[in-house]
Amino acid sequence: MPSxxxxxxxxxxxxxxxDAPISILDDVSFDVxxxxxxxxxxxxxxxxxxxxxxxxxxxxxxxxxxxxDGVGLASLDQDGRAAMRQRLVGFxxxxxxxxxxxxxxxxxxxxxxxxxxxxxxQSARDWLARVGLARRTTHYPRQLSGGxxxxxxxxxxxxxxxxxxxxxxPTGNLDAATGVEIxxxxxxxxxxxxxxxxxxxxxxxxxxxxERRLSLAAGxxxxxxxxxxxxxxxxxxHVAAK
Length: 242
Fold this sequence. Notes:
- The chain is 38% helix and 27% strand.
- With 242 residues, it is α/β, with parallel strands linked by helices.
- The longest helix has 18 residues, at 176-193.
- 39% of the residues are buried.
């Protein structure tokens, strides 16, 4: 069994802009253990979303590699990466990424059906109930509020029982009160299921809820900070007391 669930090894990403190359990520390396919650922070343009895309195998690095659960993504073709994502990763995006022609239930069912789950409909219903949408299963995304759409996205992400949850600005399109509710839901489910969380965020309060913070600046990793153990224990006690 690998000692780290996620490894970024000397990741660099360079793109062409006219005749000039632009470095988006520059030699970024770190390891993430199972069950860690990690915030990836930095100013706009620092490379956060690009890094998350590379970690998920949605984009190719110019150099370096990503190892997920002991398997290097560079060794896999596109089909192999898709199978790896299906097995390991759940996603939550700022823009929700729900299919507008499908109901809430169908949006959650779709990845389960693609994975060959025999009980996709019941599992999707159960997950929608867990995120507070038991009465909204037949509604389409256009009939749901932003917070409700993100709840559907969270249900979809967790329904496949992922080892890793990758979230890109999950509260970025929500008002402050709804954002707090969504963050609480996401972190609670993450704790209950022992998921490893990789969270891209501009929100300092959201980042502070993670055990660890990776800071990017101009494409380089400039900080790797861990919260004091006492703060983590206090959070766990607070949740247990609810």
